[in-house]
């Protein structure tokens, strides 16, 4: 096999992969969000899910793309794991349609209708129409339709190029001997797995197998194990897509692998056991592109028919393989509290809501603490954990908001109305706290990836400010969970101090920038952190106000806050003075290296020690 032949084969593979990608992506653009809406709205039964998965995958020409979408839906909570199983099974069937489309590239003829149906003619017509749509009709969706046609034409040309490259090999005895090695089922399955994992496309692997079949050297005995392995190898991109998702997202990706793995194991045992007894006469049959397409479809269809009755068992298996932690069970317990049947008993529904909001508050608090820790010790796992928990906090807001609005439609006493109003006000603030945790984590990621560090003075100032922010969060969350009015009253003075500190630190950092002590890039990150800290403090203030205002006859958060700041009583002033002394940022001395190191370890004690 000369270098020219290898390059020709690889160029054909490249054109094929690009054409398939362009066609699939453009099909999704033409469909807009309709495919996604269909996927997660019309999957209330396994049969519907299976049919939808088949149709959608046949349209976008990629079982991996369909499954990756489903992983995203399950990860976001829009779809349950049980719903995803049917779609994934259907995707396994739908992806075999590509093999039949590729059979068009093997239609040849020199005259009449056969010539009109030849690959060259079809590709030429589709390419011409596609380039006209793409170049001269800019209006969507016509330009996207043009891309679909161009993708199809490129795909067909790629198949022709691959077929042309391998055609001379049918006369090569070494190549024929190499292919006969694949009649060993284990070797064939292994080749199918590895080859598809590298290409990250089952359709591409089937296409190449079809191209090789024209050499006349691929028998049924060689094609079957390779086809079995192709399904398992196609799970590689799906498993990669689940990195960074929650446990349900990972379970969904695992289902894709298990479907093909079970199919491979089951049919390997059944088929080769029966063959050992009866010796099937068709094992030596020479495969053609059409026969490869048929084999691929039949194998996938039979696999799903065997597995479909066990959807419930598959769900239990993935939950067994990826177990929930105590923390996961705690989160599910919070959602289980919001039972619709409790809505007819408002006191009970309010108690349940209180417990669920408390769970949300604790999750938001922990996520901010994680983000602050990430600034000092960054890792991708910790970063992904913050993003995962932010999705959970969003889910809390959605479920609690819906539940409380339903509760408001019932007859409530004035006191009960106040309670639900308090929860509705605070869940949006807790959700925003989660958003700021994500913002801080992204600043930490940028600092880590670009190897940027703050000056010693900036580090010290941030340590002091973060200590104040942590105390504010402790006061806010504890006062909310325990309904502690005394601690709630301390929140606003500390919030005011943090606002002043944020403004002061911005001015100090500008001065350092002018003096060349800090660079502009770290200056942006520093400002981003201060902005997020200031907004976190503001949301803490809103939560505390909701607690204090609950006893008032008028629930008007903004008016109450204004009155508190305007009529600062002795308690407010003394509390503010206490925190102003505790979180004094003027204790930093750049020339005192030991003091700086001590301050970095414990900024609050360092400040107090200098007084």
UniProtKB/TrEMBL annotation:
The organism of origin for this protein: Coprococcus comes
Domain (PhoU) ranges: 358-442, 470-544
Top-level lineage group: Bacteria
Membrane topology: Multi-pass membrane protein
Residue spans crossing the bilayer: 50-74, 86-107, 113-133, 145-166, 186-209, 221-241, 261-280, 292-312
Keyword Endoplasmic reticulum: no
GO function term, MF aspect, one: sodium:phosphate symporter activity
Protein name in the entry: Na/Pi cotransporter family protein
UniProt entry tagged with the keyword Amino-acid biosynthesis: no
Protein's cellular compartments: Cell membrane
This protein's GO CC annotations: plasma membrane
Residue ranges the record marks as coiled coil: 379-406
Keyword annotations: Cell membrane, Coiled coil, Membrane, Transmembrane, Transmembrane helix
PANTHER family: SODIUM-DEPENDENT PHOSPHATE TRANSPORT PROTEIN 2B (PTHR10010:SF46), SOLUTE CARRIER FAMILY 34 SODIUM PHOSPHATE , MEMBER 2-RELATED (PTHR10010)
Any single GO BP term: sodium-dependent phosphate transport
């Amino acid at each position: 096999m000369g270098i020219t032949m290898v390059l020709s084969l690889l160029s054909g593979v490249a054109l094929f992969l690009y054409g398939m990608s362009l066609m699939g992506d453009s099909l999704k653009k033409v469909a807009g969000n309709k495919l996604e809406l269909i996927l997660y709205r019309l999957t209330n039964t396994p049969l519907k899910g299976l049919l939808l998965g088949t149709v959608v995958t046949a349209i976008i020409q990629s079982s991996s793309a369909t499954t990756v979408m489903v992983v995203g839906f399950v990860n976001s909570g829009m779809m349950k794991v049980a719903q995803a199983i049917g779609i994934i099974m259907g995707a396994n069937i739908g992806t075999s349609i590509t093999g039949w489309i590729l059979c068009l590239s093997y239609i040849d003829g020199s005259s009449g209708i056969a010539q009109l149906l030849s690959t060259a003619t079809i590709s030429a017509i589709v390419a011409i129409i596609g380039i006209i749509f793409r170049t001269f009709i800019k209006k969507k969706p016509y330009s996207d339709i043009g891309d679909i046609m161009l993708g199809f034409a490129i795909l067909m040309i790629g198949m022709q190029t691959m077929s042309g490259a391998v055609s001379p090999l049918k006369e090569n005895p070494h190549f024929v001997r190499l292919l006969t090695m694949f009649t060993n089922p284990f070797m064939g399955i292994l080749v199918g797995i590895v080859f598809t994992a590298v290409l990250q496309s089952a359709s591409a692997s089937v296409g190449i197998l079809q191209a090789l079949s024209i050499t006349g050297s691929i028998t049924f005995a060689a094609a079957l194990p390779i086809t079995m392995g192709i399904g398992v190898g196609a799970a590689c991109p799906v498993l990669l897509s689940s990195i960074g998702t929650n446990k349900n997202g990972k379970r969904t990706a695992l289902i894709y692998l298990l479907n093909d793995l079970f199919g491979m194991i089951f049919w390997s045992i059944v088929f080769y056991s029966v063959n050992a007894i009866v010796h099937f006469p068709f094992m030596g049959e020479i495969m053609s592109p059409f026969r490869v397409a048929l084999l691929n479809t039949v194998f996938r269809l039979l696999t799903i028919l065997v597995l479909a009755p066990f959807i419930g068992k598959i769900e239990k298996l993935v939950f067994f393989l990826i177990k929930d932690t105590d923390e996961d069970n705690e989160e599910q317990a919070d959602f289980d509290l919001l039972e619709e049947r409790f809505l007819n008993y408002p006191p009970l529904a309010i108690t349940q809501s209180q417990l669920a909001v408390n769970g949300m508050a604790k999750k938001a608090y922990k996520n901010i603490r994680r983000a602050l820790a990430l600034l000092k010790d960054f890792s991708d796992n910790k970063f992904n954990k913050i993003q995962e928990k932010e999705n959970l906090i969003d889910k809390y807001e959605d479920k609690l908001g819906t539940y409380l609005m339903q509760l408001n439609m019932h007859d409530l006493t004035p006191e009960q109305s106040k309670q639900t109003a308090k929860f509705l006000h605070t869940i949006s603030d807790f959700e925003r706290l989660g958003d700021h945790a994500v913002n801080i984590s992204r600043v930490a990621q940028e600092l880590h990836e670009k190897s940027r560090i703050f000056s010693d003075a900036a580090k010290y100032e941030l340590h002091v400010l973060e200590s104040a922010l942590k105390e504010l969060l402790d006061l806010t969350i504890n006062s909310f969970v325990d309904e502690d009015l005394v601690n709630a009253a301390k929140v606003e003075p500390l919030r005011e101090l943090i606002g002043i500190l944020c403004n002061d630190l911005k001015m100090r950092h500008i001065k350092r920038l002018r003096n060349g002590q800090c660079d502009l890039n770290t200056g942006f990150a520093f400002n981003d952190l201060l902005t997020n800290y200031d907004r976190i403090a503001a949301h803490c203030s809103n939560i505390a106000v909701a607690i204090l205002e609950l006893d008032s006859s008028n629930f008007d958060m903004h008016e109450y806050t204004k009155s508190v700041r305007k009529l600062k009583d002795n308690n407010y002033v003394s509390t503010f003075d206490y925190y102003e002394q505790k979180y004094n940022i003027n204790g930093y001395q750049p020339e005192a290296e030991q003091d700086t190191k001590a301050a970095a370890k414990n900024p609050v004690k360092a400040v107090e020690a200098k007084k």
